[in-house]
């Protein structure tokens, strides 16, 4: 069913869990895995000061992630590759880049971790995973954060 799986990573524990899940799924289905890291350059860092050192640090992080992901693909015997995309300020958002990569690569499935933010934190910080799912033209599998329990509902609330 899924022969081409795209997974988005960003170095967070939640993205690592999504990568682990996608890797396991790809191995079990003998699918190809496309790992995507988007170098997100926030507008706040583009000032009169030279943003080049900051941008280079982000790109170095991407290269480090490429090495780790490639190593994991090889260790697990999963066919795949790792792509790094630059997202310049005012050039769209990460969710748009994830969906564009999935469309260009013709992915059958997008796997992405969600940080599980709720309430004001979600409103203030936004959600790449939610935006990706809303904008996608293909199935999206959201992987929740590990070790986070859902809020309990009091027994008499229903």
UniProtKB/TrEMBL annotation:
User: Keyword annotations for this protein?
Assistant: Cytoplasm
Which compartment or compartments is the protein found in?
Cytoplasm
UniProt superkingdom: Bacteria
Listed SUPFAM superfamilies: Adenine nucleotide alpha hydrolases-like
Pfam assignment, any one: Usp
Q: Which CDD domains match?
A: USP-like (cd00293)
Tell me the ranges covered by the UspA domain, including all copies. 1-144
Q: Which residues form a coiled coil?
A: none
GO cellular component assignments: cytoplasm
> Is Zinc-finger among this UniProt entry's keywords?
no
Tell me, in one coarse class, where this protein mainly resides: cytoplasm
The family classification in the record reads: Belongs to the universal stress protein A family.
What's the protein called, per UniProt? Universal stress protein
